[in-house]
Amino acid sequence: MRGILKKLSLRGFKSIKQLDDFELRPLNVLIGANGAGKSNFVQLFRMLNAMADKNFAKFILERGGANNFLFNGRKITPKLELELEFNSRSAFSDGSNFYRAEFTPTVEDTFLLEETRQYAGHMPRSYGGPSEESRLQDEKNEPDKTGNFHGLGYFVYETIANWMVYHFHDTAASAAMRNYQIVEYCQRLSDDAGNIAPFLLNLKNSDRAARQDSYKSIVEVLRLVIPFFDDFRLDIRKFGQAEKVCLSWKQKGSDFPMQPYHLSDGSIRFMCLVCALLQPDPPSLIVIDEPELGLHPRALALLAELMQTAAQHTQIIVATQAPLLLDQFALDEIIVVKRENGASLFQRLEENEFSVWLQEYSPGELWRKNVIAGGVVYE
């Protein structure tokens, strides 16, 4: 069982000085100027992934140490606080569970974590004393009241470990997505889509109808935006003892084998995004950073449709600066991120506040006109 993230509270994390009981819905689109704090919000989910993988200490040190994660440094912010509220059912309703963590910086510029988990209406349960590494994994076999190994610790770990943060910015010739990868690395699309070819091969050759249908849907969507695209070839080659596959493909009306390096940056990014949103066993929460990079307006419109469809069965968080993408969403799906006195503020928009404006302008136009506040602020 995996939960749905209902609310998030965060204090002292990078530019996010204080964010209390912030509601997250099935589809959440963050828009804001450069430096407003969108990337820091996305970074939180990368950090949670690292915590679930027992890579937290390494994650912090590789990004400059604990002091760089505290709002204006440890002299201003003595500790970082996080609370996640989940719903354990398949839709947003009552039945909340909680995960809380306090992060206290050390003289070695790491953090000591104190973590708790809690059923609503019950006393919090500690994961143990302060530790430099998260203990989320340690309680994943915690039994429930009946003795089954699906208790609260299992629920919290499985929920957080299942989340995925996608950012397909690296499309260089050396990027994994453009090169041969081991066939077995294929069950889920990786965060940088480095395994896109093995992933597609697994879908195409699966004996499960749902995975085959997912492959067919991916190909059909790609043909709408890349009209010369016919299908993937996905030819397997032997490299010593290893079998590998690359993102080979074919054009309509031609048998000439096309290779990944024949794809433009925008085309291969769009392929990655479509795979992320149409995968048959999606993560319970998908975070996508800057999906608009290199995409044609037609691709952005179709991408928004895929996000809305995906949000019916998984939770979506998107960080963007593209007004054209903003135009595809309802106003209450949009969260404006802005800075005030050096701190990031997050505001979910409500349609009734802009009802008169929306009679003549789209959300993207309101953003460009700064009617939806969130443009550049000079401090």
Morphology call: globular
Beta-strand content estimate: 25-35%
Number of helices: 10
> What is the first-to-last residue Cα distance?
46 Å
Q: Which residue ranges are poorly predicted, with pLDDT under 50 across at least 5 consecutive positions? A: none
Number of strands: 17
Indicate the CATH class of the largest domain. Answer: Alpha Beta
Give the neighbour order of strands across the main sheet.
2-1-4-5-6-7
Give average pLDDT, whole number: 91
**How many distinct domains?**
2
Please identify the structural class as seen in this structure: alpha+beta
User: CATH H level of the largest domain: which superfamily?
Assistant: P-loop containing nucleotide triphosphate hydrolases
CATH topology category name of the largest domain: Rossmann fold
What would a concise description of this structure say?
The protein is an alpha+beta fold and 379 residues long. Helix content is 27%, strand content 26%.
Q: What are its keywords?
A:
single chain, 379 residues, alpha+beta, Rossmann fold, 2 domains, six-stranded antiparallel β-sheet, six-stranded mixed β-sheet, 10 helices, 17 strands, globular
